[in-house]
Amino acid sequence: MTAVDSVRADTFAKLLAHNAAVRGDRPAFRHKDLGIWQTWTWAEVYENVRCLAVGLERLGLKHGEAIAIVGANRPKLYWTVMAAQMLGAVPVPVYADAVADELAYVLAHAEVKFAAVQDQEQVDKILSVSERLPLLRHMIYDEPRGLRDYDHTRLHPMAEVIAEGEEALKDPGVASWLDGIMAAGKGSDVSIILYTSGTTGRSKGVVLTAERCIAAARDTVTFDKLDEKDEVLAYLPLAWVGDHYLNYAQGLVAGFCMACPESAETAMQDLKEIGPTFYFAPPRVFEQILTRVMIRMEDAGRLKRRMFHYFIGVAKRYGEKILNGERVPLGGRLLYGLGRLLVYEPLKNVLGFSRIRVAYTAGEAIGPDLFSFYRSLGLNLKQLYGQTEAFLYVTAQPDGAIKPDTVGPPMPNVEIRLSESGEVLFRSPGMFVGYFKDDEKTKEVLTEDGFIKTGDAGFFDPAGHLKIIDRAKDVGKLNDGSLFPPKYIENKLKFFPNIKEAVAFGHERDYVSCFINIDLTAVGNWAERNNVVYGSYQELAGHPLVYDMIEKNVDEVNRSLAAEPMMAGAQIRRFLILHKELDADDGELTRTQKVRRGFIAERYAPLITALYDGSGEADITTEVTFEDGRKGTISARVKIRDMRIYPAAVKEKAA
Amino acid sequence: MRAPDMDAGVTAGDVLLAVENVSLRFGGVKAITDVSFDIRKGEIRAIIGPNGAGKTSMLNVINGFYHPQDGRITFKGRTRSKMRPYVAASQGIARTFQNVALFKGMTTLDNIMAGRTLKMRRGFFWQMLRHGPAMAEEIEHRKVVEEIIDFLEIEAIRKVPVGRLPYGLQKRVELGRALAMEPELLLLDEPMAGMNLEEKEDMCRFILDVNSQFGTTIALIEHDMGVVMDLSDRVVVLEYGRKIADGVPDEVKSNQAVIDAYLGVPH
């Protein structure tokens, strides 16, 4: 820590040089290659990056020019980011799985002159859109496989570029020239452009400067007490702010080691082998892990199964309290200790969570049960809230003060304010400079006094923790004026394992109603156990017993909505279970599995009419797209249930 | 798509394997009757034909599993009429099977390692010790195997018993085991059978890459005509054990006998 504080490096290149000087022998990067973990120390990385920088400069990469980085998490791609920053060039990481059209858009918009890519797949993709990229001069690649017969006039293997740089660096003149370039780098220079994933319209290039990135990373490194002994598994997409922040920026500031998985599919196994101390995963991943554990436990022997369930129960009672440092009876502590020995630690070891000191999740709401499960095992899982424009962090939960349904108080040095409409505004050390080549959009999101509009609606709870309810533009109003946050309601529903997807309606209507998609795995499993016979998804979805079960879930949601003064009006009056699964192929979900409410409302208009005209059932015919692209229609008669509404009792209690 | 430039690389007329007037009978059943064709070095050669045309029998003859009653087979300039499968293997012929034939209880890694058996020089005694020269040898082989795993992109299933893998992946492991022998001639018996479109595309890519990167000569049996026409340099067509056509895909496609064999003839 002191070492970090002692320097005031304002660029990543200077930080790298500093790390090479003070902890040159400590591991900086690992990568599993041919089944064996390869390690590079900070000193080695620094040397490689210097060579790569000189090699790139020889190819003609200049200060201020953009270089695209396309591929999976590979040390050499991270080094390219560093090398580009060393030269004052601007790295532009792009999602490796982007389709050619998206890739072409970003590369053309960012005016990239160079592209550093992982392998043949990416080379092919860029070549296929090369006519849209007249500015692109050279491409360098990491993995030579399959590229031998390609025209190499503008294509170069990265190893060769590094070797050329190494050769050139033997000349002391070149070395001191490079030192000069590095020293001349300013913190206010553009350090990277991160393109947002673009759920709404074209993606925008978020311009970040080195000094702001580093300032933000310093704050969080201190906040979570990260140091050079920490280790992360760098498996998040390179182009996502999360990877660039959590792994790259924090790694360079704290001097910890980034381990790159062998491939995206092996990330789970690599996690176990590396045993990171700092970990981030979206809620979806935590959910998948839990499901896998539970399924595997079902196959375990009886003794093990009973032991597991007993101690999970113990953890539920005491685990979180112990983690939060609350008072727990001695008996509870002893039982929990035994549970650690027999269940929690072995389980965490299998998952690769043994050494984790700090784990974060963000991106969407995490189910309180899911969140508590991991925390009760002693995993210090916390939530954060942020966005690319903030260089990630806006709020985060501090150790020991966790409330599952909030995202925590503002981070150090972050100011948050709520607009009149309830939109969250913030100003932070890491905040962006603007959108690349889009002053109009930049003006749109900035307030006059320099706060960024997040577009999210939220409020602070009495303890000062921020609670995000929905996208501000999606929060509607019922006819009686009460607030209608669709996603907030949908998330509450989706936390029940039986409910896979929910779509709530209510804006400018008299009451809230919703569509529900059952989860075929969970409900199918239930059906099997309860001898409920069904022939298809449609039949199961329409089964009266399934309706009864879902009704209980909806009732519970209503009860919890009634408990919150601001939300009591948004209780669900009527619901129906859709006869088919919402599907991205039918345009009902985005590719990232978010519901497209407007489209669904149009497509299922007769059902919505029925939800609001009091009828007990409705007929619907929809067109569906099968996996092989053929189209067909499904028609069904869907039943509608009325729900009980709870009085907003808590209002009085609170008053 | 890359077939044209590969043609240029093939040294024309350099025959790796020649089948001459081969006939195979099981009792009274004539599986193959008087078939001749050759496989040139570096090419991808497809053997096609309707069900029961004798395609798999032909592969079995080539790798010495069946012994034809008549005819000669010349491999790398050496002519023979009888050969045992292990001799074929040691001379550089590897194959995969129509119905995957892996060691189900063993991991992917061990299965592919098994493909290296013929290359191991140290005897049973040294291997038991797990030290010294046998260890060094094992490390060397492991490296080759790891390169194959990397090549086939199956890192994630390295330690998974193959019995637990989906069919498409098992096929890929089987290809890996055949590659571990570093064969000169690779025989693939319906490498895409039972695969979905994506798996087929992957497999096509691997076959082309094996051919271009390692220069391995490949003979394959396949039913998917799109795949055959795209992949292969030359195609031989069998029907009821006889050869009815032989040539580049375009020739074969327009050959009347082939069209009749596949679509039937009006009576």
Description:
Chain A: Residues 17-436 form the AMP-dependent synthetase/ligase domain. Chain A: InterPro entries: AMP-binding_CS, AMP-dep_synth/lig_dom, ANL_N_sf. Chain A: It comes from Chelatococcus sambhunathii. Chain A: Keywords: ATP-binding, Nucleotide-binding. The complex is a heterodimer of chains A (655) and B (267). Chain A contains 23 helices and 27 strands. In chain A, helix 6 links the parallel strand 5 and strand 6 (138-141). Chain A is globular. Chain B is an alpha/beta fold. Chain B folds into 2 domains: 1-92 and 183-267, P-loop containing nucleotide triphosphate hydrolases (Rossmann fold), CATH 3.40.50; 103-182, no CATH class. In chain B, 40% of the residues lie in helices and 24% in strands. Chain B contains 11 helices and 10 strands. In chain B, the strands form 2 sheets. Chain B has a 6-stranded mixed sheet with strand order 6-7-8-3-9-10, sandwiched between helices. A 4-stranded antiparallel sheet of chain B has the order 2-1-4-5, covered by helices on one side. In chain B, a hairpin with a 2-residue loop joins strand 4 (70-75) and strand 5 (78-80). In chain B, helix 4 packs parallel to helix 7 and helix 6 crosses helix 7. The longest helix of chain B has 21 residues, at 132-152. The radius of gyration of chain B is 19 Å and the shape is globular. At the A-B interface, loops of A face helix 6 and helix 8 of B.
Low-confidence stretches of chain A: 1-6, 650-655
**Content of β-strand of chain A:** 15-25%
Number of domains of chain B: 2
- Characterize the main sheet of chain B: 6 strands, mixed
Strand content of chain B: 15-25%
Helix content of chain A: 40-55%
CATH superfamily descriptor of the largest domain in chain A? ANL, N-terminal domain
- By CATH, the topology of the largest domain in chain B is Rossmann fold
The CATH class of the largest domain in chain B is identified as: Alpha Beta
- The count of domains of chain A is 4
Class per helix and strand makeup of chain A: alpha/beta
